[in-house]
């Protein structure tokens, strides 16, 4: 009888130890501190992308008319991202995370103030996370268009800029844009100015569409070429 009791105690100890080991390994549902280091990196799901840096800065493209960036904080499996430009907060609830997989539920407000929820599974890619001190900040790029003359994209800060033209009606209406820069790609969207009645001028006022460019940077740090990527 004593041998049977001892055997049961040993068996229970083994089961408890295995259960603890699975939790510490970060299986689904784990809220260990390992989650904080595991989310750092660049994650993609088809055209969508999210970046978490070890400096507490985040950038993301997670919906057709939604790009985002700002400082983030994390408490267990809840990641809170504050966008000061739009004064909005996006919440990522981590459902599962490993070295190459990130499953999250995302609660966010779109450009029109509507609350949205989305679930996405991301795969980690070998790209450098975005930072506030990105390569584009403070630079500009000029190209020519038949109806607008020289179009200049001025990246005035780490997340905003102005699109201007030298020809036609567009010359009178420089437009603000918001952007993120991740892994040699810039995602930007032209923002409607509620205080100015800008007439519809072809592609000049394609408000809220997220447009993606690959950016080639020269040896002196200048922008030398762009290519549009369909999203």
Mean pLDDT over the full residue set: 87
Strand order of the largest sheet: 1-2-3-4-5-6-7-8
Helices, by number, come to: 2
Specify the CATH architecture of the largest domain. Answer: Beta Barrel
Helix percentage: 10-25%
Shape: globular
Distance between the termini: 70 Å
- Broad structural category: mainly beta
What's the story with the biggest beta sheet?
A: 8 strands, antiparallel, barrel
Give me the CATH superfamily of the largest domain.
Calycin beta-barrel core domain
CATH topology of the largest domain: Lipocalin
Portion in strands: over 45%
Order of helices and strands: HHEEEEEEEEEEEEEEE
CATH class descriptor name of the largest domain: Mainly Beta
Radius of gyration, CA atoms, in whole angstroms? 23 Å
The count of domains is 2
Describe the structure.
The structure is a single chain. The chain is mainly beta and 231 residues long. The chain has two domains: 34-125, Calycin beta-barrel core domain (Lipocalin, Beta Barrel), CATH 2.40.128; 140-229, no CATH class. The chain has two helices and 15 strands. The chain has helices at residues 2-24, 34-38; strands at 41-45, 48-52, 57-63, 66-75, 78-83, 88-97, 101-109, 115-125, 140-145, 149-154, 160-165, 175-182, 185-190, 211-217, 223-229. Strands 1-2-3-4-5-6-7-8 form an eight-stranded antiparallel β-barrel. A seven-stranded antiparallel beta sheet has the order 9-10-11-12-13-14-15, with no helix packed on it. A hairpin with a 3-residue loop joins strand 6 (88-97) and strand 7 (101-109). The termini are far apart. The model is unreliable at 2-12 and 14-32 (pLDDT under 50).
């Amino acid at each position: 009888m004593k041998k049977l009791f001892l055997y049961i105690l040993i068996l229970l100890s083994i089961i408890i130890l295995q259960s603890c080991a699975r939790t510490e390994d970060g299986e689904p549902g784990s809220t260990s501190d390992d989650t904080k280091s595991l989310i750092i990196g660049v994650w993609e799901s088809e055209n969508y992308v999210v970046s978490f840096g070890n400096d507490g800065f985040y950038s993301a493209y997670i919906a057709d008319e939604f790009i985002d960036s700002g400082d983030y904080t994390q408490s267990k499996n809840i990641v809170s991202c504050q966008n000061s430009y739009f004064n909005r907060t996006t919440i990522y609830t981590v459902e599962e995370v490993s070295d190459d997989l990130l499953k999250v539920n995302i609660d966010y407000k779109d450009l029109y103030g509507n609350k949205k929820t989305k679930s996405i599974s991301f795969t980690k890619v070998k790209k450098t996370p975005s930072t506030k001190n990105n390569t584009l900040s403070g630079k500009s790029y000029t190209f020519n268009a038949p109806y607008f003359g020289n179009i200049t994209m001025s990246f005035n800060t780490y997340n905003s800029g102005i699109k201007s033209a030298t020809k036609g009606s567009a010359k009178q209406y420089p437009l603000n844009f918001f952007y993120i820069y991740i892994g040699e790609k810039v995602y930007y969207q032209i923002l409607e100015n509620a205080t100015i009645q800008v007439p519809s001028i072809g592609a000049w006022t394609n408000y809220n569409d997220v447009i993606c460019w690959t950016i080639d940077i020269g040896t002196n740090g200048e922008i030398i070429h762009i290519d549009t990527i369909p999203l």
